[in-house]
Amino acid sequence: MSLPGDATPFGRTLYPLGLLAWLAAFAWVSFGVARAAGRLWRETEGVETEAAALNAGALRLQALSRRTVSQAEEARFLQDLPDPRPDDKGYLRTQRAIAGEVAQLRAKVGRRLRGALQVVVDAKANKLYLKKGLKLLWQADVSVGRGGLLADRKSGQRWMFVTPRGVFRVIGKGRDPKWRKPDWAFVEEGEPVPPPNDPSRFVDGELGAYFLNLGDGYLIHGTKNEKTLGRPASHGCVRVGAADLERLYKEVPVGTKVYIFQ
């Protein structure tokens, strides 16, 4: 069987030319399809990038929305709070007048103190302040009387474990004090009370390395348990930490006034 165009030379020439033309057309169409596919791929990639950006923007909007809601709730809470300012329009004028009176009193007290050294004990806050005139030199945590009543059924004696308030003076001070245990110490421990000069009454190291004597059996002294400083824990004396006690002993002379208040 013969192919068309095989009969003549012209036919044999026309067939290759047609095949060549068909191949060229096919190549052109394939090239166009490849270009279109490349454009489609690039456009797809751009769409994915824009989608990722839109997703990130949506997340930021969600976070902003949550913050806005939280801030709105805080604003409503603050708006609902009662106004602490009084309705009296003269309140600010009264405050200014009081501030002026306080300033005058401070000046008067300052002139009276004349820069004198003084120890101030805030029994409510369990704080000790060393001041010179109105100037604060330093402060320390202390322990004052814990309160409470102890009664001895045998003797009928009663003791209140409070630190007295008022103005005192340092009437003496010393190092390495020996504690003479009072009757209440034995009663509190459930032990029999020994005679006044019994050796069991005298204890070393219980009061720390130094003491300042305020009179009437009340001292500023140390403690074995500094964890209790800052809250009432003593039987009436003022307990101070070792470092602050040494500083007091060195800086506060005999005769210095001690103010204890609450």
SSE map:
Layout: H1 9-80, H2 91-113, E1 117-122, E2 127-132, E3 135-143, E4 149-151, E5 158-160, E6 166-169, E7 172-175, E8 178-180, H3 183-188, E9 202-204, E10 210-215, E11 218-221, E12 238-240, H4 242-251, E13 257-261
Parallel strand pairs: 1-13, 11-12
Antiparallel strand pairs: 1-2, 2-3, 3-12, 4-5, 6-13, 7-10, 8-9, 10-11
Structural write-up:
- It is elongated, with a radius of gyration of 47 Å.
- By secondary structure, it is an alpha+beta fold.
- It is 42% helix and 23% strand.
- The protein has 2 domains: 1-81; 115-261, Beta Barrel (L,D-transpeptidase catalytic domain-like).
Average pLDDT reading? 82
What's the number of helices? 4
What's the level 1 CATH class of the largest domain?
Mainly Beta
pLDDT < 50 runs, ≥5 residues: 1-6
Order of helical and strand elements: HHEEEEEEEEHEEEEHE
Helical amount: 40-55%
- Protein structure class: alpha+beta
Strand content: 15-25%
Distance between the termini: 130 Å
Give the full name of the CATH homologous superfamily of the largest domain. L,D-transpeptidase catalytic domain-like
Number of strands: 13
Query: What coarse outline follows from CA principal-axis ratios?
Result: elongated
Looking at the overall shape, the CATH architecture of the largest domain is Beta Barrel
For the record, the count of structural domains works out to 2
- The CATH topology of the largest domain is given as L,D-transpeptidase catalytic domain-like
Widest sheet: strand order? 6-13-1-2-3-12-11-10-7
Main sheet characteristics: 9 strands, mixed
Mind telling me the C-alpha Rg? 47 Å
